[in-house]
Protein 1
Amino acid sequence: MTMTMRKIGYLIIILVAAFSCKTKEQPETKKKMTDIEKIESLVLQEKYRDAITECEKFMSSHPANERIQAADYLSLCLLKTGNLNNKYYYYKGSIKEMYFAIPMNPTIARSYFQFECGITLSNNEINWMLIDGLQNSPAFWYLFEKNSIITGSERYYQVIKNSTTAKHQSNQQSQSTQQLQFTEHNTWQAPPVDREKLLQEWKIKTQTEPSERIIATGNNPINGIIKMFEACHNNKEALEAYTAIILFNKDLGALPEIAKRYNKLGYASLPEYVQEAALIFLGTAQVNDFYGFEIEERIKQQYRAILQAMDRMESLQNLKKKFGNTYTYYCYLWEFEMMQEQQQRQQQQRQQQQPLQQEQ
């Protein structure tokens, strides 16, 4: 990037940040931490199991259009605890809002997920998050600072931070805003970034110097994760994220390569969902191992039970109750569940329209 282009980039971001903040001052008020802020706070403190509990509460108590942020943080926390391919399908609503399912503008959680896989943020991603008003979140600045250390753009980070003040809506009707100094009046603060520790961890994770990095590409995180999986064979986070993508897309032909990579990295066993997927891939439970990994007897019994229940033509409701948290259910039956829900919605709409038609 030339010096002129870099200056233009700085100017655009500064103008975006300035536009997002109004100058009218209002009395200071203490705001209550939102559910998402609580999740963010726990994630940045690396209290991932507590954050998973909060994500589960959020996703079970909020409508689908509000669950995406919590689903993204759930993906991140499961990745950090090594359970992305053991537990993801346990959580209500998680499949519909899964991180890999919906390309969209960058969010803090999605960008953080990529970063933990060894993929840096582009200036375009940061730009989008500023446009979306995410500069109010300490989590945004925490991620932005870590990214700037890895990319060698700490001056850029300071320029944007110094030109931006956090704001929040105090009255939706009048659209009046309050101007707050960053973290001074926020309900929580991000922990300090340990620069040397971050650089060392990054070098181990990616086996490269920070200057030799894979950059996130637009609103679709999958491409960056695939590149990292192919480029860095010792990156466990990238392997587990790539595995989740393969399972979600039902691309089971890639399982042998994945199993070999788990073996190379010294895993004692395959994740639960990979074991299930291996049985589906082989078409039988009459196997003892898959590329050197034992298939647990519990997994084989569960697989047989699902097939037997399907042969008995048990109702989808019963199948979901018994096996809804398994990968096998997702692979064989989830699409039928979605079709059933769609038919029910259409029926409800027709019933609601009938009284109106009779009145006319």
Note: The radius of gyration is 23 Å.
Protein 2
Amino acid sequence: MADINIDTEANKAATVSNDGVTVTRRSMGDLIAADKYKRALDAASDRQTMLGGIISKIIAPGGH
């Protein structure tokens, strides 16, 4: 999946027509959902982030 730049996409036209050909962009809601999904996949695949979440939940003996 290509990187999505929400700021750039927001400034582009939703629909463009030329010589009888019409191109419609995805809605901002779809772009935001795709961006969140990609970020979640990237975070899940990052071992350091995943291990950091596990380690932060470990409490030392006698600790609170």
Note: The beta strands are 15-18, 21-24.
Protein 3
Amino acid sequence: MLSSTELQTDFDSLVGQGFKNQWDYSSNLSALPTEFGAVFNIRILMSSEAPVSRGTSANGQDVYYNTTVGRQAITHVTQDGDSMKLLYRGPEFSGMLMQNCTLAIRFSQAQALTQDTAIRNTLCTRLSSLGGP
């Protein structure tokens, strides 16, 4: 689920009620770079770019759009026509001083939506707007 960074304190107040902070994982190796935590089996990714509609709830509070994507909604497609290639250009091609070389990897891949019914936009307001912490 992609959520706004403004909701971090609200998620922190849910510790012990299903929310587990990323710092409490048994191993941080499986955590994604922007992962803040998880509620049951849903990973929560934070971004300041997540959409927020200011002052549009029934009581004038901000509404946060949390995009939730199920595992079955997307897949990785490898394209067999263009396999991975390691590109190396030695220092003899950089100029007379031969100070620079280039190393690159080229490969083709794509992401595909397989089931758009597994993508949901869940809306919420801040816990503090309801008299919470």
Note: The mean pLDDT is 80.
